[in-house]
Amino acid sequence: xxxxxxxxxxxxxxxxxxxxxxxxxxxxxxxxxxxxxxxxxxxxxxxxxxxxxxxxxxxxxxxxxxxxxxxxxxxxxxxxxxxxxxxxxxxxxxxxxxxxxxxxxxxxxxxxxxxxxxxxxxxxxxxxxxxxxxxxxxxxxxxxxxxxxxxxxxxxxxxxxxxxxxxxxxxxxxxxxxxxxxxxxxxxxxxxxxxxxxxxxxxxxxxxxxxxxxxxxxxxxxxxxxxxxxxxxxxxxxxxxxxxxxxxxxxxxxxxxxxxxxxxxxxxxxxxxxxxxxxxxxxxxxxxxxxxxxxxxxxxxxxxxxxxxxxxxxxxxxxxxxxxxxxxxxxxxxxxxxxxxxxxxxxxxxxxxxxxxxxxxxxxxxxxxxxxxxxxxxxxxxxxxxxxxxxxxxxxxxxxxxxxxxxxxxxxxxxxxxxxxxxxxxxxxxxxxxxxxxxxxxxxxxxxxxxxxxxxxxxxxxxxxxxxxxxxxxxxxxxxxxxxxxxxxxxxxxxxxxxxxxxxxxxxxxxxxxxxxxxxxxxxxxxxxxxxxxxxxxxxxxxxxxxxxxxxxxxxxxxxxxxxxxxxxxxxxxxxxxxxxxxxx
Amino acid sequence: xxxxxxxxxxxxxxxxxxxxxxxxxxxxxxxxxxxxxxxxxxxxxxxxxxxxxxxxxxxxxxxxxxxxxxxxxxxxxxxxxxxxxxxxxxxxxxxxxxxxxxxxxxxxxxxxxxxxxxxxxxxxxxxxxxxxxxxxxxxxxxxxxxxxxxxxxxxxxxxxxxxxxxxxxxxxxxxxxxxxxxxxxxxxxxxxxxxxxxxxxxxxxxxxxxxxxxxxxxxxxxxxxxxxx
Lengths: 585, 229
Fold this sequence. Notes:
The complex is a heterodimer.
Chain A: H1 2-53, H2 56-61, H3 63-70, E1 73-78, E2 83-86, H4 101-109, E3 112-118, E4 123-134, E5 137-147, H5 148-199, H6 214-249, E6 253-257, E7 263-266, H7 268-274, H8 278-281, H9 286-290, H10 293-305, E8 309-315, E9 321-331, E10 338-346, H11 348-384, H12 391-422, E11 429-432, H13 434-451, E12 455-460, E13 467-470, H14 471-488, E14 494-501, E15 506-513, H15 535-540, H16 547-558, E16 561-566, E17 572-579
Parallel strand pairs in A: 12-14
Antiparallel strand pairs in A: 1-2, 1-5, 3-4, 4-5, 6-7, 6-10, 8-9, 9-10, 11-13, 14-15, 15-17, 16-17
Chain B: H1 2-41, H2 45-76, H3 80-113, H4 124-145, H5 148-178, H6 183-215, H7 225-228
Helix pairs in contact in B: 1-2, 1-3, 1-4, 2-3, 3-6, 4-5, 4-6, 5-6
């Protein structure tokens, strides 16, 4: 591009230069030739007139001398046309010169000029003749002649000088023009390169052309356009990134199906929910990607009704992930293509909470009704008042009392629990030695363990830090855990209590029994209210089903935590992590 | 030209319809099997009756799908790969329909078993259900991904199912010899086990068809060393 433009300039300049030299040369040469011929002619005429002043007889004698002085051939011709003297030929030629045009002209007008080929000298000659007069009579003619070649030589010499000057001027101006062209073309080349770069999509940088002319203006305009473009691209980019991060960052799963019902895009949330990477599902139909009947049926329903559909479906191989899916139509760009958008909202946790709540209500009712039924039943029997002995009503009354106590315990536990859950429980934190607390608790539960023939082993590591707890609550926690251990450990078993300074500012108390253990799958649910791993047995043992739940919440209120580890047939280990008193100094 | 492109697009859509239909049918049978196991383990007669009822849907879809395949064969005269796909699709839907029937069979047996006392907790049957379900899933996954290796895995798993079936048979035999009153229950359990074994066979059949569909070579009726192992 640049090269071609440059050559165009070169060719144009060269053409103009050559044409100028040729025209000027031609005109100057013509002018010079005319001018010189006239001047030389006049010079010769003046010479001839001076010669004519001499006495006629002397001219012939001095012919050679005169010719040399005038740098011309001198011919003397008498009135009859005979040559009387000639500076170059002697007296040889005598033919009539009267009819020669220069002589004729001289006779008629006083001076005659002619350019002719001289047969005597075999040259192109310029002739100038004047008449020699004595009074009114023409005595003869003086003719001076010079070969034209002489004149031409002068003309050529002058012409060459002129040509040289012209050529020099042209070369100099050509060089200047080239310089100018290069200077002008270089910014154009840069403009071209820059715009080409912009066309390819690279809008970085700017043109630097320091110039006040049109090219400078052009580059300023281009810079302006590029800046605007950069700004627009930046805005569009930012907008796109914002949308993208919104799309990928939202916790809901989003999936878009194209007009052919193939998956067009999924966001990160979707990938996380299904565990299927982006590349595995794009371009597939819903059935190919997920093979989920409920999802497919929901889509079919959406297609039939042509309105937004919201459904609850189970995802995953065992459909354990419960999703709220909303299917709606999206208009593609241009309004032509109909796309479908599916928004997935993971409600597994919500569903679980819902189940816990319904379970809770069912459990509470059940737990309350069991003792109530007993109380009502026995009270009715007592009312009827037919007894064989006195022992029976007493037994009945005892049962009623036991059940009422159980109800009372249940209500107490529920109150404790709801207080803890609401964060209303007041903890009187004090520095407690765990060993002391354990001893107190063991004094209470030890008897029951003894009855069952259980061995309680206690291993206290030497120096233990003090823990920051509510003394009564700590006792409640330990009693609950030990109670469970005693209940579920068969006769002759062992309960081992170990304490150790744990990591991260905690003190660990581990209570391990050799009981039946709990199935692994049940462990996460143990903290739930009324959740019983072994439904039949544990109620027989008289628990309210709230013990572990209370422990969990109490530990949380203290800033500690409970960890239960168990396997069926291998006993259960409950680890309690208590926060220790921070070292003050 | 325009018309031709339109036609080929329509054709593509019809092929996809068959592919999706197979997958939907597959998902239905997989669910029937899963629910059958649930009905068996939880002694849920309501669920069992639902499975028997849902089998009608599977049968209907099977007929629909087969008709679609035949219509496509007649009207479009597909060649090479597409022809292979459609012929295999006909066979696969047959297998799936049979799996659905087996699941319904199991549900029917569960209905009877639920009225009889349970003689022992099930150990092998849930495993058989899990494996055969996995086989169906894998064979359908292999179809979607055109994954021959995955399809071959299905064949290998069939051997495990056969072993389990034998194991169940032997175990039940001892129960029956011990106590003739348990014979009735044992026979039903045996039928369930046999149904599961048949389901696994059909899953293997599907996997074989997938291999044929992808590679064009049939591996059916060839003694595979894996089956003995």
